[in-house]
Amino acid sequence: MIVAIHQLHYLPWLRYMHKLASADVFIVLDGIQFNKNGWQNRNKIKGPEGAMLLSVPVLHKFAQNLDEVEIDTKQPWQKKHWGTIQNHYRRAPFFKDHEPFLKKIYEQTVWQKLNDLNYEMLFYFVEALGIKTRVIRGCDLQVPGEATDRLVNLCKAVGGTAYLTGAFAADAYLEPRLFEQAGIGLATQEFQAPQYPQQYPAAGFVPELATLDLLLNCGPQSLGFLMNKDNDRHCEESHGDDEAISEN
Question: Does the reported pTM lie above 0.70?
Fold first, then answer.
């Protein structure tokens, strides 16, 4: 059984969802230290000039855990993000299919904790893409350890026989010997950014955006594109209007 493990992201990007879909079990690290320069509270969508960043303002202290981080509700970030998404994607072929969820996120709910927002998004994208991977909250496992030792213990806790790692982690900090000692195999994620129709074709194709970009443009075909199973398709119904509306 292949296990993948990753922290929560805001509007998770394509490489993230590819890793999740490539595993049998995906464990969400929801209690690790918040990284203010990471992707836990921000991600990229596409505008007329190319990639643009959407960031959720947060209130955090040094070395604060992710599950403790609160959103700065005094800032009108929800209105701004929703307005930006509407402007840039309202003519995307599958925008209407996902508009009810987006309204719930940006109009109908006042978010206090970053984790609550990110979990809501993660579970929606898993279902919308049709991914069958079992997703487990890390906080429910209560597994001890730090760094690679913790990853090994998490794999053991769910009966994993192999751990799927990203290429960066494999080169930067992972200790393969600890997995070997535990009898757990190691596999490296093989991700190829999918090519698919986007809004604003004049700006050129922008790879590795938030999953929202793929979903709004290609709808039910999105998982096939993400897993590089639909490269022979053109998703012609998803080209949108040329005049339609910026890693971890």
Answer: yes
